Amino acid sequence: MQRRTTHRIGAGLLAAVAVLTLARPAAADGVKDRQAELANQLKDLREDLEGTSDDLVEAAVRLRTAESRLADANSRLGSARTALARANQRDHELAGRLELAEAAVAKAQRDLDARADQERDSRDRLAGIARETYVSSGLAGLSIALAAQSPEQFADRLGYAGNVARAQSGIIDRLAVEQAETRARQAKLEAGRQQVSALKEQSEQVVKQREAATAAAKAATDEIGDLVKERQGAVDVIAAKKASEQKRLDQAEAEQAKLAAILRNRARARSGGSGETDGGSTLSHPVSAPITSGYGWRYHPILGYRRLHAGTDFGAPCGTPVKAAASGTIVQAGWSSGGYGNHIVVGHGRMRGADVATTYNHLSRIVISSGHVSRGEVIGYSGTTGLSTGCHLHFEVWVNGSTTDPMGWL
Questions:
Q1: What total number of domains does the chain contain?
Q2: pTM of the complete model
């Protein structure tokens, strides 16, 4: 049975909430890791609250769960806000780059159009020269020499033809340069268009990222609101039930004190006796099951003080046979109003020079309720009656009217 020490540690509700508040994990290794961590914490919490009324246990579990999920939701909200801020910054940067790229494309298009006009003008001039000089004037080929009336006329016509040829050659050269520049400007324009297209694609991705971050932030904010309500509801239950829980634990301690008095009286009555009851100096395991919780002091996170977990818990499924740890006589059997549910107390007489008794608690069924029992005899079946957080056997060893760690006797 759990008993409190005389020096209590802050029993106020704020202290209880502070103790129950879950610190944010130092490192988030993934959802599964956090879920496993929470499951372990809830298991420890239920063990700390063993013997507490069910509604308070569940309120404490809801509070711890809400705090854990709040920490996770706040972390997700922070990440979403960071992602949103980055997306907005990136969107602003891309908008500026896109504006410059589109302006550059527009200028490149104007330059290309102007260069096309110059190229058409050069082509037209070249065509005009060819048409007017070589067709209209009849100066094509040998007609220059044949049409001349004198050497002077021949020389004049030949000079004119040379000038025309040089003018035509200049236009051809300029046209070649203009065509090369046109190709370069076309390439520049295409590169600009590709840059604009790439920037637009990036902008579309940023818009999606911003929308996703906004949705995540809203979801986390909504969840936080719900969890705050859930946490407050659990706190309200704890506040409302705290006084009645303290009264119930006081009654449980009184019942344990009565049992201690009975066992001490039996020890005094047999103080002159000798030998062990069944010839043994140790106790047998009362049930075949792993140990889930040991003997020792625990802090009650709701009432705010230390209390003794006065036995060893075996994780036996409901209905597992429970056997007498040694031969002896039934001292008590029935329902315990202190939270142990169906329980049996067996007195074993003197062992190792001391009076020894054992108790078997939270039983689903009692098989033997009076008389003598033998070591290893089935006296009941494990369960979860009384104030229990699950199927198990709470086993206690009493020596001269006080509890002790059962592991020193098993």
A1: 1
A2: 0.54
